[in-house]
Write a structure and sequence with these properties.
By secondary structure, the protein is α/β, with parallel strands linked by helices. It has 2 domains: about 45 residues, no CATH class; about 180 residues, Vaccinia Virus protein VP39 (Rossmann fold), CATH 3.40.50.150. The protein is about 25% helix and about 30% strand. The longest helix has 14 residues. The chain binds S-adenosylmethionine. The site of S-adenosylmethionine has 21 residues, from helix 3 and strand 8. S-adenosylmethionine binds next to helix 3 and strand 8.
């Protein structure tokens, strides 16, 4: 894989091999180079954030802006044991795996085998498959792992799995929910058992600005992804 950066615009392309055709002409070689139409390119190895461009689509992924907040507010890092459900496209599982390497691990559950295979394919694209165990299973029926640092639920009815999250987590471990609607947040809050602290509820609004021409916010953008609820097992 190669990352091609068009130096004038910053536009990125992830190419399986060279030469690679872009709207600015054919790019043939690595390093600082020029396309067949004389446009300047830099061609290097892609990083994790570049490979997102190649993600195989499946169920709606947890957005990286929100996962970054989870990272910041939990301190997730190398060595952590994480349970993730549902796997969906495998983006959250891969994001966590990237950060818990080299000695941590992610256990990612989904009830749908088709989604597990998309998630596994994406984890392989990122080269993170050794740090994730994908498991077909319904977390409302049980979670096998114990002494877990973080349980992350991006699924419609997380309250059905509270008991199993509590059994899986270490004392002080984090339960994080990712929920698109207020109705879900209300129910998640109302059904949370006493062995968890009350949720901190967040919504992260990210606004991009135009950086060329007059400096001002973009007219359009992603207006809502999901609420992020964070609790600790006590
Ligand atoms: C929105 S997707 C998750 C996306 C994922 N966080 C990502 O970043 O790619 C929700 C997934 O939860 C799965 N799911 C729903 N209920 C479940 C349950 N009780 N146990 C396990 N997986 C479940 C669905 O099959 C679906 O794949």
């Amino acid at each position: 894989m190669h990352l091609l950066i068009h130096r004038k615009s910053g536009k990125r392309y992830v190419a399986p091999s060279l030469p690679y055709n872009t709207e600015h002409g054919l790019v043939r070689s690595t390093g600082r180079t020029e396309s067949s139409t004389g446009e300047p390119f830099t061609v290097v190895e892609p990083r994790f954030v570049d490979l997102w461009l190649k993600l195989k689509r499946g169920p709606q992924w947890s957005h990286p802006k929100d996962l970054s907040l989870v990272l910041g507010l939990t301190g997730l890092g190398p060595g952590w044991k994480v349970v993730d459900a549902g796997s969906g496209t495998g983006f959250a599982a891969s994001f966590f795996a990237y950060h818990v390497r080299p000695n941590g691990h992610v256990y990612s559950y989904d009830i749908r085998p088709k989604n597990i295979s998309i998630a596994r394919e994406n984890a392989e694209l990122f080269g993170l498959q050794d740090y994730i165990s994908f498991k077909e299973g319904d977390v409302s029926k049980g979670i096998d792992e114990r002494d877990v640092d973080l349980v992350f639920f991006d699924l419609p009815e997380p309250w059905t799995a509270y008991k199993h999250a509590a059994d899986a987590l270490k004392l002080g471990g984090f339960l994080v929910l990712y929920l698109p609607t207020v109705d879900q947040v209300t129910r998640a809050r109302d059904e949370l058992p006493d062995c968890f602290t009350p949720f901190e509820v967040y919504e992260l609004v990210l606004r991009r600005w135009k950086s060329t021409g007059p400096l001002r916010p973009e007219n359009t953008g992603l207006l809502h992804t999901a609420f992020i609820l964070i609790s600790r097992k006590v």
